[in-house]
Amino acid sequence: MKKLLFPLSIVVLFSLSLYTVINYNKNNSAKSNSYSIVDNQKTSDNNNNSISKTPSTNSTNGIFKDPNGDKAIDFKLKTLEGKEVSLSDLKGKNVFINFWATWCPYCVQEMPEIEKLYQETKNSDLIILGIDIGEDNDTVRDFLNKNKLNFNILFDYDESVATNYNITALPTSLFIDKNGNIIKKKIGPMTLEEMKSYVNLLK
């Protein structure tokens, strides 16, 4: 009986993993992760959902919306080349921020979609920023080169920005309008069409 239960448990765990996002545990290293269940098939908008610095445990679709618009917290982070970028410098632009890491499989899954959006919008007033959490330059540079990714990547080495935004799962995305208001928060990977629908909310 035990021999039958063991492989069955593996199948169940694997199935559940298809609907998870990786929880970011601030009390341990970024690579020490637990898993939270998010059904990414349920991605329709719900006007009763509100964006929160602490994601609601009652939400089942991983989407948090603030109709009034929380103000985005300013930060200053460096690029691969060492150039400093401040969110406040981007006022007057629409901004899409994606918190991610190379060890997060759902982040990796989402990256090509973000690159497609970047290629379509790079001459527009939309700024795309990928914020890597807690990794070194060489690891991220190798990943970007291997996957031919060209959008802007910033480094949250000490995880302070992730802490300020209360990032508890990866990937997590924020859509910020030209006045610095957070219009949309999305936990979990997105398709290109989802990203476009959230970008359209900024117009």
TrEMBL record:
Record-level Gene Ontology MF annotations: antioxidant activity; oxidoreductase activity
Cited PROSITE patterns: THIOREDOXIN_1, THIOREDOXIN_2
Domain of life per record: Bacteria
Residue ranges, compositional bias (Polar residues): 38-62
Gene3D superfamilies noted in UniProt: Glutaredoxin
Location of the region described as Disordered in the Swiss-Prot/TrEMBL record: 38-65
Domain Thioredoxin: 66-203
PANTHER family per record: THIOL:DISULFIDE INTERCHANGE PROTEIN DSBE (PTHR42852), THIOREDOXIN-LIKE PROTEIN HI_1115 (PTHR42852:SF17)
UniProt name for this protein: Thioredoxin domain-containing protein
Organism name: Clostridium folliculivorans
